[in-house]
Amino acid sequence: MIYKKRGQIWYSDFIVAVLIFSLALMLYYSHITNISMQEDAIMDELVADGKSISSALISGGSPTNWTNTTVIRIGITNNDNRINQTKIDDFYAMEYSTAHRLFGTRFNHYIFFENSTGDRINITGGETIGTIPSDHERLIQITRFLIYESEIIKLKVQIWW
User: Fold this and answer.
1) Which residues does residue 83 pair with via DSSP β-bridges, in sequence order?
2) SS3 for 94?
3) Using omega within 30 degrees of 0 as the cis cutoff, is the peptide bond preceding 63 cis?
4) Distances (CA, A) of 122 to 13, 93, 96
């Protein structure tokens, strides 16, 4: 009888250990799944904000002939994918915080232009607009094509978290 009791005690200890191990595995995998869903949601939001910013920029903006004091939505073209020099000058002169607020994003943005060979173009006031990406976990880039001085150029919008 002594031997049977020892075996029964070992068996119940084994069952408890398996249950604890199973519970730990379930908690681990449910936590990992939640983390990946959060990362996917952030990436989706980054892509949506990047598309929104680039779409706004290739539009004419609002109001049609906006200035830094009247702007509601930033746009640097005349609604025909041709860069409007006055609008791009005003955009370069705009403070980052104002542009950030008008774009309606919680992420940092960096905007620049490239010619067909991939060289940065200094359209007015400098080559870039925004904050240079540094110390980021996620970065996406949206590229749009525009016409500047009868040449097709690339508008690149980088947005990161």
Assistant:
1) 77
2) coil
3) yes
4) 73, 14, 18
